Fold each of these.
Amino acid sequence: MNKTRKRSKPVPAESIARLADRGKDVSRFFTHAGRMMAPIQRVNVDLAPGMLEELDRAAKELNISRQAVIKTLIRQALDQQYLAREHRSGRA
């Protein structure tokens, strides 16, 4: 019979917070494998109805939210801009 180590269930954040409030060491709950993310800022964007329809079609085709489509397209456009800037400056 295989002897495998059972994985423990994740501990709810509320439980960890209660332990920390009581002055207990909670470092064992953190792997330090991730990175800190800056807070998200909400922005408003005005779009023409046709563009909104295009975004909705793309979201439906990709089975993702409209917001995810917008974020993905913005990320791609910014990456293209950085690559073009590097190419123009002769670093490529």
Amino acid sequence: MSADDTNGSDTSLAVIILAAGLGTRMKSRTPKELQPILGRPMLDYVLRAADVPAIAQRIVVLSPAKSAIAEQLPDDVQVAWQDEQLGTGHAAACALDQLNDDITHVAVLFGDHPLLERSAINGLVETTTEAGGLITLLTTIVDDPASYGRVKRNAGQIVGVVEAKDDPQQYDGPVEIYSGISCYERRWLEQHLPEIERSPGGEYYLTTLVEMAARDDSMSVPVVAVQADPTVAYGVNDRIDLARAEQILKDRILERLMRGGVTVADPNSTFIDDAVEVGMDTRIEPFTIIRGTTVVGEGSVIGPQSVITDSRIGNECEIVSSHLNGATVGDRVHIGPFAHLRAGARLADDVHVGNYAEIKESQIGRLTRVGHFSYIGDALIGEDVNIGAGTVTCNYDGNAKHRTTIGDRCFIGSDTMLVAPVTVGNDAVTGAGSVVNRDVGPNETVVGVPARVKGPARRHQIGTDGEGTA
């Protein structure tokens, strides 16, 4: 095949991702490729790197013992099964019969290389297309080749890959190694994979193909290489490797956010998942963790010591030393310190939540203030409401949850117990320490245990610090 045959639209590539290894060094009941790294399974990073326009087909090779991975793959990713663990060459061969008819080249990746980036795949594709060789290797330069295969050259041409166990040489300086990522001309690969001889250990290795291709005299340069960043060769085998990979990915994420206009006060103590979005001019204070699919608006301050998971936070908010999980927060909202917003908490604009307050499955209206040491659960609270310190919505009767509804402009005195289901009408007032187990009408004031109507509400008597004087 000449270089012209692989140029332009005539080149159609498939990616085979090898993920059948049992990964016993991870010592986990979870398959290695599903180990989470900053909010995503490890394999997701590889699939994303291989999701480029030049790739027409993606196939993941799995062992039947790792069927859990197949259940989590995107719909457009196919699965090939490797019933026996007989090496990388055998694993690649298991996927060949699933290749589409128009595929001209096949790239082979590994499911435990989460540091792989699209730029490396694009470089591999471009070199393959331009060079027109039989094999394109993704190589890199390192000071210590460790367990990686060494690229063997003769007069500048690649003639093979030497496995670490077969290389007695001691290195004192840069060494070109094979990352394990490669691309093959399809017809040549299908013809020569069956010719790989079994190793003494009983496995078939893809690296054997490099020497076979180098002996092909039908073209001047049968094996070519493209060099990439050393991280592309980083495979994860155990928990130590996992932690190192996570640190590199963490730095990439923070760098991306900072280049986008986000201030990260202390990157060393800040952890942000890959899918998180943060708006311009937001500041992330030290010891903050932002997880999942969280979205943070512009001009907000998060932290210090906040933990935010799967939440949406508006613009110009301040969340101090608090935990949010599945919450939705409007603009100019202040939360904390030490508040806890659980799933279903929905705060409108200009809401204040004090320290040690907890909110779950509740909607809080605009300008409402929730005092410290309060619990708001299964509640619908209107606008401009003052929730005094220590207020509790008693939403659970031992069998079922019940709703509390509070109208606009109400004043709920400190230590009020709202025994759901109960409704408090607009402009109503509850006295400090009241136990409200019946509905309160609009403009009424109730006090006592149980709370009884005292008279009409008189807002001029009510303080604004959540303590109450009624």
Amino acid sequence: MRRSFAKIIAIALLALPGLVLAQKGAIDAKTFEALTKAQELAEQGETAQALATLDKLKGSDKLNSYAKSQMWNFYAFIYASNNQYKEAIGAYRKVLSQRDATEGLKSNAKYTIAQMYFQIEDYSNCIRFMQSWLSEVDKPTPTAHIMLAQAYYQTEQYDRALSNVNTAIDLEQAEGKPINESWLRLKSALYFSKKDYKATAETYEQLIALYPKLSYMRQLAGIYSELGENKKRLAVYDAIYEHGGLSKETELLNLAYMYLGQDVPYKAGTIIETGMQAGVIEDNQKNITTLANAWAAANEHKKAVPALERAAQQSDDGVLFARLAGVHFNAGDFDEAVKAAKLADQKGGLKNPANNLMLMGMAQFNTKQFEGALQSFRRAKQDKSSFRAAAKWESYTTAELKRIRALEKAKLELEKRTEEALEADENNQDAIDISG
């Protein structure tokens, strides 16, 4: 994990020092000529010939310490250019061992040795030489601190790594430069390795502000999940969605479930419906059911009903018909509620059949199907959990039925008496007509 991350953000090997030869008077003419020739061959890509020239020069007993430092610097340059880092390190170490090597040459050698040790993943030596270099320079570069931070990261010395990253950022900002993207990525990785998720999130927030990328938003959402910041996580995923960053069925459904979890069913329904229309979310029973439940929870009756009907028809049990009955009932469509509840009852498989019977009974009551309602409530009474409610509704329905029957009876009695009175009036009139 650490090594792969370093490959992504490791700074490139800095350009090795150019072959600036010393004044001719500092070394003898023959040595100067050999070094010049080696430089020309190296620049032409003739590496083997350049090294052969230096090998001849190396055998001379006339080289002073300064000349040897220049020669070994040439060796190091050629080896490094050929990605022979171990050989280059050995040559640079010989530069450092020369008493008369210039301070600039030694300083450059230390810095480059540190870089090469990083390249060959010898992080302990990288740290040692980079620390030595930093202790000797007046103006350390931000990149030196970043390399040191990366080496500390690889050796799991996270606090020291963070200290160097922050130093690099401070140096960069002091010069009015924007913070390097890879440095912030390293910083976030360090905080994450320390399990400091709050600081990790803050660093990703800074990253997104400076370098807005969907990949960073995804990672930030994951960190918010670790922190239990579900609302923030949802907000980030929604931003990703709005920017077209969610293209897979699982991603869209996960976002919809997040909205359902935060009691925002309308948004969940919109996401699922849009995904189905685009052909990304499969139009299967499970997804249709989720869609229907979302619309139902959002009180979108007109959208919930067709979705539930589709899902219920595909289902082997009556659960979705019971759910459909509830949607119809809440919308005041009591006739449709009765139909759906009856289908749920017929299919079975309900976790609590008594609840469906209660709803069916109430819907029947509202459509004046009192006999049917009484049957539903009496069946619901068989379940202990609904016994009281069912008994009350049974009593209420019975009383209503008696009241209606009494009204009907009174109406019939009234009609009968009215008819008898009319007949009496007619008889009286006939008697008057006859007597007259």
